[in-house]
């Protein structure tokens, strides 16, 4: 079971002070947060990809390469890489390069994003979002797995005798998660290839994601990758933690009320009741997170959003201390104890390499 954090990289005014960080300060803060994640024993740091204010992470591989040089164990990922508006050739090359720099500590999450205007900014049509995701990923897989690629599709110029460089580290492509909050077509795509499916269930009710994940599991088994309960599932979540529950509620409320993503909507009480957002003590975060297994089955990756809505860096680092020292160790123990032996761990570069070598030895 992997635990980590993901960031959307928003530059948001702190409602308690009326001040906002500069883009430079926010970018440097994200790097500090990633280092802190490793320091407190988390497994994964993932960054979003956005190309519009108030977000800053327009170049995830640049940031992750910089973080790779300052960490030793942290798996570096994305949340998400825009498969619809990035050229698959550039994705193949960028993440293979990152693999080499990070000694394999890399995977990525594919998604379509949630900003409609990004499509015309990169010369694409939002009405073709699903077909773009399907075609572009099919090409990306071939670029990583075939030395020489001939390709002709609908959305980009043909390739003739093309070799993507550098080749993936150890000839093992990065593991791919397909992220979605609403599209069964993306769950189907993940299942078809035997990839991971990441449900970022931070906004919508549990029942919606239960249906989406159940569909992915069924199709994963249908395509012969294993039993439904062996499918590779990741979940998003949100938390604000203080040693005392009421302190957490009092401190987080102004950030929630003014947050660009959900401010001026449901009350904090209603939102925490209907979504995975947990505001409270470490034990309350533990208790609610353990219900995710009851709702979705055994899963492999849990990422928390901790640094949004204008929270100052000092507060975020305090949150990570509580998450890493008091919450995650208990979750690891509880979830591992309940997980059947046949349910796999989250894939890593080393496990994928070992599986490849084992298959080759049998040939």
From TrEMBL:
GO cellular component: cytosol
Entry GO MF terms: monooxygenase activity; oxidoreductase activity, acting on paired donors, with incorporation or reduction of molecular oxygen
CDD domains, A to Z: Tetrahydromethanopterin_reductase (cd01097)
Compositional bias ranges of the Basic and acidic residues kind: 347-363
Pfam family, one: Bac_luciferase
Location of the Luciferase-like domain: 1-295
Coiled coil: none
Keywords noted in UniProt: Monooxygenase, Oxidoreductase
Region (Disordered): 339-363
UniProt cross-references to InterPro entries, sorted A to Z: Bact_Lucif_Oxidored, LLM_FMN-dep_put, Luciferase-like_dom, Luciferase-like_sf
Source organism, top-level taxon: Bacteria
PANTHER family per UniProt: BLR5498 PROTEIN (PTHR30137:SF8), LUCIFERASE-LIKE MONOOXYGENASE (PTHR30137)
Protein name: Putative luciferase-like monooxygenase, FMN-dependent, CE1758 family
Annotated organism of origin: Amycolatopsis saalfeldensis
């Amino acid at each position: 079971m992997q635990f980590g954090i993901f960031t959307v990289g928003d530059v948001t005014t702190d409602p308690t002070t009326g001040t906002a960080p500069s883009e430079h300060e926010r970018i440097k803060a994200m790097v500090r947060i990633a280092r802190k994640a490793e320091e407190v024993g988390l497994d994964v740091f993932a960054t979003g990809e956005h190309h519009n204010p108030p977000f800053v992470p327009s170049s995830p591989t640049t940031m992750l390469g910089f973080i790779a040089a300052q960490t030793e164990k942290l798996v570096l990922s994305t949340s998400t890489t825009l498969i619809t508006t990035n050229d698959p050739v550039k994705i193949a090359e960028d993440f293979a390069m990152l693999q080499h720099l990070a000694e394999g500590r890399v995977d990525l999450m594919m998604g379509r994003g949630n900003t409609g205007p990004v499509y015309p900014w990169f010369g694409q049509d939002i009405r073709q979002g699903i077909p773009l995701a399907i075609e572009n990923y099919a090409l990306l897989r071939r670029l990583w797995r075939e030395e020489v690629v001939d390709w002709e599709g609908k959305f980009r110029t043909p390739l003739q005798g093309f070799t993507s460089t550098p080749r993936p580290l150890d000839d093992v492509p990065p593991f791919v998660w397909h992220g979605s909050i609403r599209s069964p077509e993306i769950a189907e795509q993940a299942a078809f290839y035997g990839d991971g499916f990441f449900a970022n269930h931070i906004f919508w009710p549990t029942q919606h994601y239960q249906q989406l994940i159940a569909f992915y599991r069924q199709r994963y088994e249908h395509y012969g990758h294993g039993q439904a309960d062996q499918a590779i599932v990741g979940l998003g979540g949100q938390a604000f933690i203080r040693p005392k529950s009421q302190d957490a509620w009092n401190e987080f409320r102004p950030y929630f009320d003014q947050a660009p993503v959900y401010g001026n909507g449901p009350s904090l009480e209603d939102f925490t009741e209907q979504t995975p957002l947990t505001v409270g003590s470490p034990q309350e975060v533990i208790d609610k997170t353990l219900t995710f297994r009851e709702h979705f089955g055994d899963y492999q990756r849990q990422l928390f959003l901790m640094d949004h809505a204008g929270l100052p860096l000092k507060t975020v680092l305090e949150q990570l201390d509580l998450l890493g020292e008091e919450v995650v160790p208990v979750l690891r123990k509880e979830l591992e104890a309940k997980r059947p032996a046949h349910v796999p761990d989250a894939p890593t570069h080393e496990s994928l390499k070992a599986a490849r070598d084992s298959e080759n030895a049998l040939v």
